[in-house]
Structures are given as structure tokens and as C-alpha cells.
Amino acid sequence: MTFKIQSSAFNEGDSIPSKYTCEEDDIFPPLSWENAPEKTKSFVLIVDDPDAPMGTWDHCLVFNLPETTHGLAENMTVLPKDAQYGKNSWGKSAYGGPCPPSGVHRYYFKLYALDAFLSISAGATKKQIEEAMQGHILAETTLMGRYKKIK
């Protein structure tokens, strides 16, 4: 059984519905995952856009999701106990949906299963989160969606 992340809102490689983007409600899409390794203690979720004109744009960073977490609900506004937001590229500790300036961009929802909780503070940067994860990653899985502005 393979560690896997998915969404009921879009399939791998498909378009992300507008309600999860800056063009509409800009809410968190529903995510679920299964088959985490047995020794998992926490999860890290990184949502980013490698097609951004100034380099990879971080849309959402969440760390210390407890091992009992098997997904995040649509329009999630409160994180599970012990989980923390990192700081995204807008400088906010929150989800910011797809909002490409032009063309089609790819958005990666990367989930990491870790053998520990991270000893870093809320609002940590992606670099700080990635450094803290080193040596603790048991498995990773990715869901990629695409988006091009409609309006």
C-alpha cells in the first residue's frame, strides 16, 4: 500500500476549481491521505507553485499535523491540535489559493510523513521547515493541480 494524498475537488493533473483560487472564495480544498508509514508521528503539508515568474511561490505551509490526521476539510480555518502554519510567500500564516499572473501554473500539494514533531515556531519559513524535516522524512506523496485565471 502506497502513501497517497488526494482531493475530492480535483484529480491529479486536472484543473483546480475556481472556488479554491483568488478568483472566487480562495478557500482551502479538501484533502485526504492514506497509508502513512507505521512510525509516522506528524505530517508536513507544503503547497507551492514552481511556475511563478520570480521562482517557486509558497501558497501554504502546515507542520506538526498529528499522525491521527488523515485529511483537511474544505474551507479549513482551524488547524488540528498541535499543528502550526508556516509563513507563505505573501508573508501570511494561512492558505492562499492559486492566482497565476498569466498562463497555466502547476500547484503541488506535497505531504511528508515524519518520525517526529518539528521543534520550530509557528510562522516558520519554508526553508526552516525543510531544514527541520531533514533526517525525519519517512515518506512523501504529491498531488498536482493546474490553474489558469478565467477572468
Describe this structure in words.
The chain is mainly beta and about 150 residues long. It contains one helix and eight strands, in the order E-E-E-E-E-E-E-H-E. Strand 3 and strand 4 (about 55-65) form a beta hairpin. The longest helix has 8 residues, at about 125-135. The radius of gyration is 15 Å and the shape is globular. About 30% of the residues are buried.
List keywords for this structure.
single chain, 151 residues, mainly beta, 5-stranded antiparallel beta sheet, 1 helix, 5% helix, globular
How are the SSEs ordered, and which strands pair?
Layout: E1 4-6, E2 31-34, E3 42-49, E4 57-66, E5 71-72, E6 84-85, E7 105-114, H1 126-133, E8 137-147
Antiparallel strand pairs: 1-2, 2-5, 3-4, 3-7, 4-6, 7-8
How widely separated are the two ends? 41 Å
Structural class: mainly beta
- Count of helix runs: 1
What profile does the largest beta sheet have? 5 strands, antiparallel
User: How are the strands ordered across the major sheet?
Assistant: 6-4-3-7-8
Strand content: 25-35%
H and E order? EEEEEEEHE
Quote the average pLDDT.
96
User: Mind telling me the C-alpha Rg?
Assistant: 15 Å
